[in-house]
Amino acid sequence: MSDYNAFWRCIQAGATYLFVQLCKMLFLTTFFPTWEGGTGMSVNSSISLVHYITMAALVWMFTCYYLPKHYQLPLTFLLGIGVYKAFFMESFVHVFLLGSWTALLVKAVITGLLSLSSLTLFITLVHSN
Questions:
Q1: Number of other CB atoms surrounding residue 115 within 10 Å
Q2: What is the residue range of 28's domain?
Q3: Can you list the alpha helix ranges (DSSP code H) found in 32-84?
Q4: Do 113 and 52 share a structural domain?
Q5: Whole-number Å distance between alpha carbons of 55 and 120
Q6: How far apart, in whole angstroms, are the C-alpha atoms of residue 14 and residue 10?
Q7: Most exposed of 2, 9, 82, 83 (fewest Cβ within 10 Å)?
Q8: If pLDDT is split at 50, 70 and 90, which confidence band does 1 have?
Q9: What would the pLDDT profile of 34-92 be if each residue is shown by its tens digit?
């Protein structure tokens, strides 16, 4: 029984550490914003956060042992788009000579589509089991 107690102490310490880091980041970004486009940076960070959560969900779905075969192709496609999204975005911005705010909008739209597609796939996967 004491083995489990030590495990949960480690989990509790890790969660406390993450909470303190989150508070520190919120404090720093609230009271010490960057002087060069602080709004654009926070929007970009929010878009990146949604992208990372989406990628984590896709990887989790891909590694599920009960994943039906017909889900592997769409998951692989979405993972490929997610992994190479930065390359596609830089190429798109370079070819079409987009401004920074337009590029941010395109990045938000692509991330939104990727996350909604992942959510749809996740919901159908959960309801099929």
A1: 19
A2: 1-32
A3: 38-62, 72-83
A4: yes
A5: 14
A6: 6
A7: 2
A8: very low
A9: 565 555 567 788 888 889 999 999 999 998 888 889 999 999 999 999 999 999 999 99
Token pair for residue 28?
């720093």
Q: How does 65-98 read in b/e, with b if 16+ C-beta sit within 10 Å?
A: eeeeeebeebbeebbeebeebeeebeeebeeeeb
Say whether both 41 and 99 belong to one domain: yes
Q: How far is CA 80 from the centre of its chain?
A: 14
- In angstroms, rounded to a whole number, what is the distance separating the alpha carbons of residues 11 and 16? 9
Sign of CA dihedral 112, 114, 119, 124: positive
108 and 77 in one domain?
Answer: yes
28 and 39 share one domain = no
Same domain? For 28 and 40 the reply is no
Q: Give the pair of three-digit tokens for residue 12.
A: 């509790």
